[in-house]
Amino acid sequence: MKICPRFFYLAALSLILFLSSHSAKAQLQASTNVADVYKYFHFDPSATNCGVLMQISDVHMALDNTELANGTIVTNIDPRLIAMLHAISPHPTAMIVTGDLCVAGATAFGLHDNEPEAMNELILARTALSQFTNFPLYILPGNHDNPAYEVTNSALFNKIFPNTPRYTNFTIAGLPVIGLAGHGGGWLDPEERAWLTGLRETMDHTKPVLLAVHQPIVAAFSADARELRRDIFWFLKPWTAPTWLACGHAHTRDVSQFPVGASTLTEYVCPAAQNWLIPTSNPLSPSACGFYLWCITNGTVQGVVEGVLTNSTYYALSLNEKYASSLPSLYDGVTNILFTAEEGRFNRSDYQVSVRGIDVTYWWSYVVTYTCRLPVEKYPTATRALFMGAPPDTSYYFGTNTNSWVSAPLEFLSPGSISSIVIPPSLRSGPLYFMASNSVDTVFSGGFGLATTNRMTDFAAWAGATVGDSTITPMTLLPNAGGITAWDAYLFGLDASHTETLREQSGAPYLGTLPDVSSGQLRFGARTNLNYTILQTQSLNDPWTPATPTVSVTSNGWNELKVTNSASKGFFRIGAQTN
Fold first, then answer.
1. Average pLDDT of every residue of the chain
2. Kind and range of the H or E run holding 157
3. Omega into 90 within 30° of 0, i.e. cis?
4. Which pTM value belongs to this model?
């Protein structure tokens, strides 16, 4: 499989550039009366062809499960949520529950240690949800409700919810809503995917659509959402209209936007509906428990309101509030990839895979050791082993057999958690065995691979010279530089240590410092060893279209790139990838 490096998009620094004087972030709108917050979006839930979809997630009924609940007993939905719901007038048009009704169904990824307790927790959830009778209720299973060994069904979930399909679709105020089951490890089963194929063929791709599933596919992307992301991106590929994704799982608020084909996907991660999961007294904390109200008008999302249980207050989540720095990939920052073997997509016996951990079909959880044979004979230029999903404290070893090992240091950990480890020169001719080990069993693995020289060495040299640490990853935040990522600072030659105003680093040419937009022209400095891509749009709800830059200056390893005749295009995105 050929893996292309992803585009790193300019993040917290200035991801969206304006040709007008609009503010990049909306002012916070809050009230204990939801009607006041609706006004922020010019939304009237009583108007013709308007509707409200209430989303709750991760209610996690718990019956003394010591692994995750730490002895906590939870037998009902938080009464503050019930009180806030009763105060909403008019009532929501419908409610969707995006998974994790219980705990014991999968107390850890891949485990299924207490089915009787899980069934009792699901019965509690069913009883708690039965009090919502003023609107249609749609329930999707989460990873705790759908153990990972249930690859093709949701048998545990359907024992308690026999009349609730694990995937569904409906319409609110003209907006199609599609609910999916992400299963225990982040994938769609064959029956579900066939059903989704039928929808894809019959739906109008020029009109918006809202998808809902338990696991986020990008904001918290890792090996455990790999298959789910591929399926959803495949589904959305023909869309040209804006698209949305409602999910949970992370027990925190997150709002991010990503280009997907000709569409723009906005992903809203809903915080947990139970306070015991991540207790906080700060209502503005991302982990504050709560729910979402999706405000829908004439087939499109007008805005999203968050109800925070901590202070019984509603907050407007502007569509412009946050933009993801990029479309993340597991292989971010890793180049010259020769070979990859992703779990679930190869025969483990072909590479003599042996794992002390929990099998989750497309990845492994709670891994103590992961051993495999690397096919260096087929790839004689390979100098690096790649390992997917390990934390920084993992140890790595190579050997010509599985009885004698030589330790090797971690060279580079990508933002997508791909470890790059240099293969000792004396072992590169093969046979070659590889082992990753972590004594506290915090590794989750999605596979392995081979690569040649890592081209991120230029970034490492820059990080060593300007940040003082050549081992940081591109997504490391630089607090002394306004909280931007190291990649953004590297991308535009910014002084990563400057604490007041961002400016170019010493020795870099003055090419506008930050990307500059004036007189209908975008202008910025670009490294000659990177390929830059520019997207532009008139409105943040419109598709992004490519813009062709011109090179006007070349000096000392830098170009100055310009995009002209863009006065009518109000927003820009700038991305770059290694050559």
1. 80
2. helix 155-160
3. yes
4. 0.73
Backbone dihedral angles phi then psi of residue 23, each to the nearest 5 degrees? -75, 140
Confidence category of residue 320, pLDDT binned at 50, 70, 90: very low
Burial class, 82, CB count within 10 angstroms (exposed 0-12 / middle 13-18 / buried 19+): middle
More confident residue, 105 or 482: 105
Cβ neighbors of 578 (< 8 A, separation 6 or more) are 5, 333, 335, 455, 456, 529, 530, 531
Query: What was the pLDDT predicted at 578?
Result: 62
What order do you get walking across the sheet with 30-31 strand by strand? 30-31, 313-317, 300-308, 290-297, 50-56, 94-98, 137-140
Burial of 283 (0-12, 13-18, 19+ CB in 10 A): middle
Distance CA 224, CA 360 (A): 9
> Looking at the chain, how many residues does it have?
579
d(CA 109, CA 252): 19
Catalogue the E-assigned strands of 482-570.
484-485, 516-518, 521-527, 530-537, 545-547, 550-555, 558-563
Cβ neighbours for 300, distance < 8 A, ≥ 6 positions apart = 175, 208, 242, 541
d(CA 247, CA 320): 18
Q: Which amino acid is at 9?
A: Y
| 421: Cα separation from own chain's centroid | 25
Return the residue matching tokens 């949701």.
154
Q: In angstroms, rounded to a whole number, what is the distance separating the alpha carbons of residues 460 and 539?
A: 37
What is the rounded CA–CA span in Å between residue 369 and residue 371? Answer: 6
Integer Cα distance of 260 and 168 in angstroms: 23
229-233, 338-342, 430-434, range with greatest mean pLDDT: 430-434
**DSSP classification of residue 326:** B
Q: Per-residue pLDDT tens for 361-415?
A: 888 888 889 999 999 999 999 999 999 877 778 899 999 999 999 999 888 777 6
| pLDDT at 326 > cutoff 90 | no
Structure tokens belonging to residue 254: 């997150």
Which secondary-structure segment (H or E) carries 178? strand 175-179
Of the two residues 320 and 283, the one the predictor is more confident about is: 283
118-127, 215-224, 354-363, 386-395: segment of lowest average pLDDT? 215-224
User: Helix 190-202 crosses helix 226-236 at what angle (to 10 degrees)?
Assistant: 20
**27-32-33 Cα angle (round to 5):** 95
Within 8 A by CB and 6+ apart from 482, the residues are: 12, 13, 502
**Residue 415: C-alpha distances to residues 314, 369, 385, 420 (Å):** 34, 22, 17, 12
